[in-house]
Amino acid sequence: MNTLDTTLLVLGGGPGGYVAAIRAGQLGIPTVLVEGDTLGGTCLNVGCIPSKALIHVAEHFHQVQAPNPFGVTAGAPTLDLTQAIDWKNTVVDRLTTGVAGLLRKHKVKVIHGHGQIVDGKTVEVGDTRIHCQHLVLATGSCSVALPSLPLGGAVVDSTGALAPTTLPRHLAVVGGGYIGLELGIAYRKLGVKVTVIEAQPRLLPTYDAELTQPVIDRMLQLGITLLPGHAVEGYDPATQQLTLRDPAGSTHTLDTDRVLVAAGRVPRTTGYGLERLNLTMAGRAVRIDDTCRTSMTNVWAVGDLTGEPLLAHRAMAQGEMVAEVIAGHTRAFTPAAIAAVCYTDPEIVVAGQTPEQAGAGALVAMFPFAANGRAMTLGATAGFVRVVARSSDHLILGWQAVGPGVSELAAAFSQSLELGARLEDIAGTVHAHPTLGEAVQEAAMRALGQALHI
Ligand code: FAD
Ligand code: NAD
């Protein structure tokens, strides 16, 4: 067996792991990164990036043929699915190659292979044994498997749904959360019949009903069938029938030639010797403190392995911080908020506290895009921006928005929370016109009883 000594070993090259390794390299820490699949992890290869690329293709295809009030008409478009997937893959390759280049530039040694933990200072990859002083676990998460719907053939997970070689006639989406709705809407816009089956009484149950209503309205307008409160009993590939149980307990069948299982993701904790470390867990996740320390000295964990929220920007921020802590800097991971975006139509973005979390005494105000000039010029006026603030001193506690392209408001929302802005700060900032961001200013003005355009 070959042996290798290093100061830092990062296990997993997704956004948590590769950012930790790049930052460690920048700080002069001798670093080895072990990746069993492709650099970039779930996010770049089978998650954030390919899903947003596919959503963009679908939107483009849909817009060309959508009836509109602008007087623009076009012939029926055609879709070259192979070319669309090739384009998506080009975007992914560009990013993963970029990550490899950055790691090289910062002198991180990348070892391709499946790592097996021997102990808190030793990992084996094939016939190489690596000894380290610090071990960062960044092994990510995997899809929840439903026993009634084993993957294979017509039953796919998000990875399969992001790389189709053909489009189905009817896609049944099991799980009305982030993945189910983002990909369900995209497939519908590509011309596929779509049914979304959600176990809970509401779709996107983690968001409040006011926020999700414009998305529900749009899905119904697009012709997507929504089945909240339904349980899935199984799929028969021979008859291409999915058996469902409705809220009243009756069973039904659905003719469908593809089933997307999108019932959540869980930390990846098996198959690589994690149990040998006997770490303290928090449910299914590795428990960490606010410096990403686990219960074992010099063993750290970042990203999806450490539990909710399972978001790439959280993994990256933790990865950057943990490298600095290992380098001896005084750091802690205590963000004022971690924004979350759902790339539905319309998009949803949340940051900080909701009205419910802030309690009855909080100031809450919303400004609808129906009164925003830029939204009107985009022909997309559904949705609103909502602000939540402390009534005593107007400190902003949270933002929520649903509307066209509101993902880009995440920056403004996070910055205002991180900088401790008050309603007066946002209301008193001159916002460019005409922009969707004016709705942010108007929401703050409305909370102060000073809205101008409503
Ligand atoms: P991962 O990205 O999962 O990376 C872990 C890496 O570790 C993998 O490359 C894996 O191969 C490697 N690994 C695991 N075990 C070993 C081992 N023993 N040896 C060697 N290598 C190993 N988040 C967002 O913020 N925005 C989005 O828009 C978004 N969209 C998504 C869409 C989809 C379809 C999916 C599935 C997820 C999406 N996410 C999104 C979530 C995001 O992808 C994850 O939060 C993020 O990738 C987590 O980063 P990570 O580094 O913790 O883990
Ligand atoms: P999710 O937790 O968002 O949604 C899963 C949904 O499936 C839930 O609504 C749940 O009630 C439902 N469900 C569970 N079991 C079911 C069953 N047997 N039948 C019907 N419905 C069932 O999970 P996801 O959509 O799989 O996404 C996984 C994670 O990936 C998310 O937690 C998110 O953090 C991340 N992600 C983020 C983005 C983004 O940031 N835009 C996009 C995609 C994924």
Could you characterize the architecture of this molecule?
The chain is α/β, with parallel strands linked by helices. The protein is 31% helix and 26% strand. The chain has helices at 15-26, 41-46, 48-65, 81-105, 158-161, 178-189, 209-222, 312-326, 355-358, 373-377, 410-418, 423-427, 438-447, and strands at residues 2-11, 31-35, 109-112, 115-119, 122-125, 128-137, 141-143, 155-156, 170-174, 193-198, 225-228, 231-236, 241-245, 251-255, 258-261, 265-267, 281-282, 285-286, 299-301, 340-342, 347-352, 363-368, 384-389, 396-403. The strands form 6 sheets. Strands 1, 2, 3, 4, 5, 6 and 19 form a 7-stranded mixed sheet that branches. A hairpin with a 2-residue loop joins β4 and β5. α1 runs parallel beside α8 and α3 packs parallel to α6. The longest helix has 25 residues, at 81-105. The termini are far apart. The structure holds flavin-adenine dinucleotide (FAD) and nicotinamide-adenine-dinucleotide. Nicotinamide-adenine-dinucleotide binds at residues 146, 174-180, 182, 197-200, 205, 232, 262-265, 309-311, 340-343.
Portion in strands: 25-35%
Structural class: alpha/beta
Q: Low-confidence spans: pLDDT under 50, at least 5 residues?
A: none
Continuous helix count: 13
Query: How would the global form be characterised?
Result: globular
